[in-house]
């Protein structure tokens, strides 16, 4: 008997993760560095090699024949109908314009479906995570950047040019005048992403008579992880920086909730690993924006971590999964 099996792949700017998904169960996950600076063809070769390794690992441990296919969640704006990278950032040079389906089918001989990586996270949480069982949900990935994916009645909303879900690029009064990585100004990502919160902290330090309100924060944190540790240790300026970013994001999500009215908003990414220093102001600002009709919408933490993208990429092969434009 031949069983359907999927190699699920999550392609980011720094690493590529791949694993087998059979009957909804993820296994044999491996992670390799993304050869980003070597260009798109090197990245495609690495994906094909990881796919072959996962198939070998799975076939060697199971006494069954498999009909393999590939599901990919990849960085960049991905057209799920064609598997083409519509646009991408400098984290993957030369990635824009890559035809993931034809390129990887040529390398592996397997059928391929592809979607944006945050969209894959949204599908994964809806399939087996925090939004499982809901008819509609918004997944928000808050970390180095801020992205999103909206699911309604089991369908992924991709929108015109496959660009739906750019949660980080809604306007925010708190970000007024601040440069956004997209090239614009005043977007919520410019105040609420991890790097933006670190920049806020540095501005607060510069504006303060002393570099920190308590001695525990010296030297000045070099990254968001160190800043989180400083906040947990009692650095008032670090706490304030996270409060500013969390409230800006919470307000933006409240506004989006009023427009989309999903059953649940699920927040993942690096910032979601924070404690109540970040979550409490996020929830408060979110609730303050809701109109009475949307007041019952849940704001909850993602459950699947980085495995969400793999489970979501595999779900592209579910018979009921189709994108909605």
TrEMBL record:
Its EC number is 2.7.1.2. Keywords: Transferase. GO terms for molecular function: glucokinase activity. Belongs to the ROK (NagC/XylR) family. This is Glucokinase. It comes from Brevibacterium epidermidis.
